[in-house]
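Quick one:
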Amino acid sequence: MNPEKLVDFIKISERLEGEHRLTHLSNGDNQTVASHSWNMANMAIMFWPYLNNNVDMNRVLQMCILHDLPEAIAHDVPLHKQTPLAKQQKQQDEMHAVATINALLDDKNIASLFAEYEARQTPESRLVKMLDILDTGVQHMCARDISYVGIYENSFYWKLFFSDDFAHSFDVEPALKKVYNEIRNRVAKRLKQEQNIDVTVFYKK
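Output:
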C-alpha cells in the first residue's frame, strides 16, 4: 500500500462531486456525476431481489460507483456534442484517465471493471447500463423544469429517451422494464401537461 498514491486517487475522485451533467435535479441544480453514480448504486441495491439474472452484486456496485470515474479527469461530454471526432477524442481522454487511475491504485480489478462496463458482455455490465439509463429517466421525472431537455438538437434527448433502443435494453430484466415503463409514462404525462407535447412525435415512424 502506498498512502501517497491513495490520497492522490482520493483527490481525483473528489472532483466528481463538482463535475456536472446536463440533467437537472428536483431542486433546479444540475446533477453531478457523483450523485448520478450514487443513485445508480442505490437502485442496484433496491432492485437486487427482483432481478431475473444472477449477478455479482459486489461487482455491480463497484461498477456503478466507478464507471464514470474517468470523467474526474476527462470531464463529461454531453451526448449531443459527441460528434465522431469528439467521440474519438473522448475515448482517448478517458483511456488516459483510466491509465492515470490504474497507476495510482495498482489494482487489476479496477482496470477490468472499466473494460467490462464498456464491453457490455456480462450480466453485471448490462445491468449497470440499465441503471445508467434509468437514472436519466429519474431526472426527467423529477427535474423542477423539463423544458430544457427539448432544446438540444431538435429534441435529441427526447427521441433517445423514448426510443426502441432504450426500451429493448431492459428486455432481459422484466422488473426493471416495468419500472422504466412507469417512469416513461410519468415523463410523458409531464410533457403533455407542462409542454403540451405528445410523446408519440418522438417515436420512429
